[in-house]
Structures are given as structure tokens and as C-alpha cells.
Amino acid sequence: MPGLPTRFAAFYGARPLHLLTMLSGFALVGYVLATFRPATLWNSGTWWQSIVVWLAAAVIAHDLLLFPLYALADRLLSWRIARSVQPKVVARNYIRVPALGAGLTLLIFLPGIIQQGATTYQAATGQTQQPFLGRWLLLASVMFAVSALCYAARLAGARRRAAGKLRKSRIRR
């Protein structure tokens, strides 16, 4: 006789944690809708700074433009890696992770990189936003370099294991 979690999963279609997560998400959305008013989401003075406009632009930019582009890039990367000679260690995640990190840090620091609000930033800190681009480029290059070193170490380990197996098979003959 199946246990309660198994029967729940058969009835609901997923584990209980999924239901708990969904209920928590709906509770959060309900709270946001109850506390935010339309005036909070719309800036009548400068329309392009409204939360609604940015949310709509993010959905359109991501779902209609960016997602197909990076899905295509991932397909091309997968196709290229599948044709490579060394299928022992797949390089896909060693490219994906630093690219994702570089993209997210660009998204977070973009206002500083494009020097948006430069006068306010300088008045508040006494510094300029000039080094933001160089620092982001340095951070992105370090992420790719660390990923390349990890990939090289993993590839060397795989080659060493393959050479060890080849020697053992020759010795047994």
C-alpha cells in the first residue's frame, strides 16, 4: 500500500513541496496586489520610469527577443560541442556559467556602466562612475578565466584517467 506522499503525488501530480511553493507565490502576489495601488506602479511625471512600463519592456525584451537568441546560441554551442573530438568532458556549462554571471552583473551594474545618474552619484559619493565599465569587464574576464581553468583541469583529469585505462588494458593482454 503506497504511503501518503506517494498518493498525494499521484493525485496532485507533483510533490507536496511544489504545492507549498505555489501557495507561497500566490500569497506573495496577493500581498503585492493588496498593498500596491495603480498610482504606485505608474509615474505620471515621467512615464518611462514607471514600474509597469519596465515590467512590460522586460517581458517583451526577454520573451520575444533575448530568449530566442540565447536559446539559438545554446543550440549552436551544443551542436558544435557534439561535433568535437573530446566528448569525455562537455564544455557547455563551462561556457554557460560565466556567460550567465557576466550577463547578470551587466544587468545589475548597467546604470553605473552607462553613467546614468552620474551627477547624483558624484554628489553622494564624491566619485565618478568612470571605472564601472572597466571593473565589469575585469570581473567578466576573471569569471571566464576561472571557468577555463576548471575546464582545463577537468579535461586533464579525464585524459589521465583514459591513459590509465589504456595502460591497464595493454598490461592485461
Automatic annotation (TrEMBL):
The chain crosses the membrane at residues 17-39, 51-73, 94-114, 134-157. It comes from the Bacteria. Keywords: Membrane, Transmembrane, Transmembrane helix. This is Transmembrane protein. It comes from Mycobacterium terramassiliense.
